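Bench notes, afternoon.
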Amino acid sequence: MKLHEEIDGRLREFIEAQHMFFVATAPSGDDGHVNLSPKGMGGTFVVLGEHRVAYLDFHGSGAETLAHLRQNGRITIMFCAFQGPPNIVRLHGRGSYTPIGHPDLDGLLGHFPDAPDLGGLRGVITVDVSRVSDSCGYAVPFMTYEGDRDLLIRWAERKDDAALADYRHQKNATSIDGLPAFPQAAAPTVG
């Protein structure tokens, strides 16, 4: 494993070439569930600077990441090379959440020029990165990228704003541990 001072050119190129990444968060204390979520879709992750990244957060069946960010802000993002030379890059930091309806959202969305349809967008997660590392990835298998799935986009196209708000209220209000997740009022959550 090697520690890096920042997300430099080589690491940035590696990150931006990946079709998939993983997000890990956990609640504070000894109880609660650690969460690990796979993320994908082209145009949904951006490097904002040497110590700052962001990704688009679309509606999903849970809201563990949001709940954990609201509670303690801790987050790790991991990228694996499934093609080419083996490599794993981890970004550790503090995350914040800007939900739909927040006045800062449009400014953040300007950083995602290649974003997919935003109809199912729940918000943007921004991470201030405090630790950057990479490791060998020798055990990560080769896998071929065939394309992005469009199921989430198609699901959201069938919903209007009221239906999405109801979905958030029903499915995203709390984590599986009962922590508050998606804010019912459009106020930012800062980690």
